[in-house]
Amino acid sequence: MSKISISASISHEQFEHPFINAAGVFDETAKDMDEVLNSEAGGVTTKSATLEPRPGNPLPRYYNTEFGSINSMGLPNQGLEYYLDYIKNSKTNKPIDLSISGTSMEDNLKALKIVQASSFEGLCELNLSCPNVVGKPQIAYDYDAIKETLDAVFSFYTKPLGVKLPPYFDLQQYDAVAKILNQYTLTYINTINSVGNGLIIDPETESVVIKPKGGFGGIGGSYVKPVALANVRAFRQRLKPEIKIIGTGGVNNGLDAFELILCGADLVEVGTALAKEGPQIFERLNNELTQIMKEKGYQNLSDFRGKLKEYQG
Prior knowledge:
16 strands
């Protein structure tokens, strides 16, 4: 039997391993990103960058639970120029993907114009789905706003671009969003961001566990895996083939990743489990996914990617 490969690609970027960090985890500083790149991750995604450095929401704004996490981070980051400089000066041969998340369409356009004019040629991800900026709605739940944003972006942006989407919960939502996205030369989508505005309670203190927004925050971890699987599956069925998919949500082990790829994911991002376990998780995930493929007789991810079967009973 030939050697099993778990390599993957999106656009011109090649990933020896299919696992990377979800934007917002182990990526705010150069030290964090170096730690991911020095692990068995396939690459790294930067913290979602705003035009200027941003402190984020008040502490505490992140809390681990048995089955996942809740957060209301509020986009803390070092600013766009910091991440562009990091990428420019990095000596790694692994892909570094740049995440952008302005708090207004005007800021997003300004940021992408800076990226367009820069030497950066990698994957850029426009976050349309942050649920944790106080007073700001998620763009991607407004179909007109998605189209308005992408019309403006693609009037000037010519480099590889992806969009990060929130979880959708209705088949008609998948239909409507995919119809919009298929009109553009998108490189990929990333689905899902955290499930917005959940609530975790500490029964001992009879209080919420994070400070911002009265305790409301984005839910991640095992709680959201079925939603992530559904979104990857639904969009793979609806998007044109050239738009790739990064699957994110509920990945704790190789089997979770196998299921996301089976639904159609090209790469897999890890958030809550990475925050809990640290970058050493990537070696374990690579080994577990490889073992599953060996047991099933698969040589490459393409052998099963997007080949989820209908019910066989």
